[in-house]
Structure to design on (341 residues):
């Protein structure tokens, strides 16, 4: 047990060394004293999007459990833009999906275990999926505070942001959701799950319906969700690849038919409008690059609980290559030219 604790503390120190080195320019500020939390346990290191809308109360709620420690403030795309031109996706080399770009990257690079961002039009779910990470958003988290930050998107749609969570580990995502939301204790059962008639989902509760083209404009997808979410426990959509073949950004896409086509090819389907209809949503990465399952429900405790219980059925194995390469923090500090005598 003592050896495990020592290894955990060494690992935490390496996370801070990497955050201070900041090789990818994804960190705004580091809190090295997060390591003090190891005096009473083995905490999950938190990275928070450096944005005033995220309440300090939320971080305190997590830290008061003794299971979390604030580690970094993370960079994000300017003005909530859907891509971040200042940092790159390490899997594609393309501009990183925004706007919670740094928060997602710092989880991916193993600096942090949990990322807390904000999602207006896919700003948590899209970065998470683009990096094969788990993501969750809920209008129920710090609802009154988040409603103070009502704004208009670059394509003219009004919304209030939701708090979102990003992790590498499904169990950590589940535990964090339980900490910040009051969900029912009893195991819930779905009576109606809606999926596309092209979906491979085969749960007995699933009803297949016709979905609109996921590359449609946001207004079309918003109408679809508003008409449909109330009719089911939750909906399932397989989406992506996010920002692999195209770039899902309205500034880029507004110029001409070619840029508009590239914007539609970005693989951001229902995930980019989930928050705009006040839905709760979770994304589960698949094996394909930048792809995965997106589950959406009305933002109520019962429906969110049901959605998460079924989402767990979609969780697959870890990508061993990504873990070996990006999880090896020693690579950043290798002396490189041999040993001193």
């Amino acid at each position: 047990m003592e050896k495990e604790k020592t290894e955990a503390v060494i690992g935490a120190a390496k996370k801070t060394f990497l955050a201070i080195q900041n090789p990818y320019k994804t960190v705004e500020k580091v809190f090295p004293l997060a390591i003090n939390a190891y005096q009473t346990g083995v905490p999950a290191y938190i990275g928070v999007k450096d944005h005033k809308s995220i309440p300090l109360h939320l971080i305190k709620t997590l830290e008061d459990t003794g299971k979390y420690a604030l580690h970094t403030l993370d960079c994000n795309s300017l003005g909530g833009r859907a891509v971040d031109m200042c940092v790159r996706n390490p899997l594609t080399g393309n501009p990183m999906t925004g706007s919670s770009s740094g928060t997602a990257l710092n989880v991916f690079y193993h600096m942090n275990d949990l990322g807390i961002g904000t999602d207006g039009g896919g700003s948590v779910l899209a970065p998470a999926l683009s990096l094969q990470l788990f993501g969750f958003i809920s209008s129920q988290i710090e609802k009154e505070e988040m409603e103070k930050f009502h704004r208009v998107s670059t394509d003219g749609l009004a919304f209030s942001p939701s708090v979102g969570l990003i992790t590498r580990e499904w169990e950590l995502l589940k535990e964090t959701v339980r900490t910040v939301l009051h969900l029912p204790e009893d195991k819930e059962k779905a009576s109606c799950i809606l999926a596309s008639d092209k979906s491979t989902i085969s749960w007995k509760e699933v009803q297949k319906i016709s979905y609109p083209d996921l590359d449609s404009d946001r207004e079309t997808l918003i109408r679809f969700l508003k008409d449909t979410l109330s009719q089911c426990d939750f909906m399932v959509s397989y989406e992506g690849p996010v920002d692999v073949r195209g770039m899902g950004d309205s500034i880029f896409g507004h110029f001409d038919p070619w840029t508009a086509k590239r914007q539609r090819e970005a693989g951001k389907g229902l995930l980019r409008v989930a928050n705009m209809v006040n839905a709760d949503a979770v994304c589960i990465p698949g094996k394909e690059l930048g792809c995965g399952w997106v589950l959406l429900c009305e933002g109520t405790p019962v429906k969110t609980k049901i959605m998460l219980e079924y989402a767990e059925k979609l969780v697959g194995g870890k990508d061993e290559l990504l873990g070996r390469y990006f999880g090896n923090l020693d690579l950043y500090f290798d002396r490189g030219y041999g040993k001193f005598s």
